[in-house]
Amino acid sequence: MKRLFLFAIGLWLALPLQAQVKEEIFESFKLQERRSVKYYIPEDYNPDKRYPLVIVLDAEYLFDQVVATSKFYSRFQGLPESLIVGISQSEGDLRTADCEYELTTGLPADKGKKFFEFIGMELIPYMVSAYNVAPFKMFVGYDITANFGNYYLFKERPIFNGFISISPDLAPEMESRLPARLAAIEEPLFYHLIAEGDLGEEEGRFSQINTALKQIEREGFTYYFDRYPEANETSIATYGMGKAWERTFDIFKPISPEEYREKILTSEEPVFNYLENKYQTIETVFGFRKPMELNDIMAIYAGCRKKDDFESLKPLSDLCKEEYPETMLGFFFEGEYYEQIGEPKKALRTFEKAFGMQEIDFLTKDMALDKMDALKADFGF
Question: Which CATH number describes the domain made up of 2-252?
Fold first, then answer.
């Protein structure tokens, strides 16, 4: 199965991206120069939906990989589609100048300051004005560009909520400054640190920063450290992207059989609370509401029946009337609720309403009719 998955994502990475990717020259007032920028806009972009925004440095090497990862996981794993912007930096000495910092303070210097403002005050505002951008924004960088992303955490209110930091070339004191800052930020934040096998002289600093970040226990902070022994300082850029992406947006995935068994069935709270909390967390963390998936509704329905939690059927039925108003879902679940709490007349009338609605998933008119016939036989209606 694992080989099949890797083969599938390999094919997906090989698919042409040109149809949804455009490259333009951005006239930057802050930099006083013209910069090559790549944009990926989802093929079925809908201005009524909100999309996470991902800023990718080292676009020549990372942009296509990030786009392919986003497309694959949104198509096959139920993760949200994203707007992706890549900044090209390979021409001349752009990369070094963009990420320049003071050796004494470790903070952006000279052009580094201007590049910092270019992203935060020009590029992101442009995307927000041109597209329906969600509050959730993510930064992806490698080596010195990964270190550069950390600087946005030192703003009073960070503009990025997620970071994929691939083998960062850490600025002075960053191994102590970054954990202290991440512990102080109150907003939800995801931080993924990815490293190769042989870190050489940087082994001690990486060990220190990893230990410190793992000890942060504040609510809303999610940290992962992935180390790949088989990767070197160059190949590491191709490792870990999919894993980090999936972890960041994991809560978007439909309820899986494992999640159903280990979280829903073992919880002592009402079953409906799990669904409510899941979607509220998505809205709180990512800033937009995810449409309610039929898979998740059916998982909660199965949990209600399995745990004899029939009280949860009422709020579930109300939700279904809003989310799937033309179908049987809402009235069928409500009919079962009344049936289980000993209100047969209300149950019969409700199943009659369900009978007149559209069938959906495993719910059919025959099932509603069977319920009605059983109630009539049992209570002589």
Answer: 3.40.50.1820
Residues spanned by CATH 3.40.50.1820 within the chain?
A: 2-252
Q: Which of 119, 147, 138, 116 is nearest to 51 (CA)?
A: 138
Q: How far apart (Å, rounded) are the C-alpha atoms in residues 134 and 145?
A: 24
CATH code for residues 257-379: 1.25.40.10
Residues 277 and 285: their CA atoms lie apart, in Å, by: 12
Tokens of 67: 């786009």
**Residue type at 377?**
A
CA distance 223 to 260: 24
| pTM attached to this predicted model | 0.89
Dihedral sign of CA atoms 128, 132, 137, 141 in order:
negative
Pairing of strands 33-40, 83-87: antiparallel
- In angstroms, rounded to a whole number, what is the distance separating the alpha carbons of residues 31 and 97? 11
Distance from chain centroid for Cα 340: 38
Average pLDDT of span 89-98: 92
Amino acid type, 73: Y
Which residue is associated with the tokens 């800052």?
181
Where is average pLDDT lowest: 15-24, 72-81, 316-325, 362-371? 15-24
Torsion of Cα atoms, 146 then 90 then 19 then 78, to 10°: -10
CA 200 to chain centre: 33
Q: Return the pLDDT at 93.
A: 85
Helix (H, G, I), strand (E, B) or coil at 300: helix
Backbone angles phi, psi at 189, to 5 degrees: -155, 140
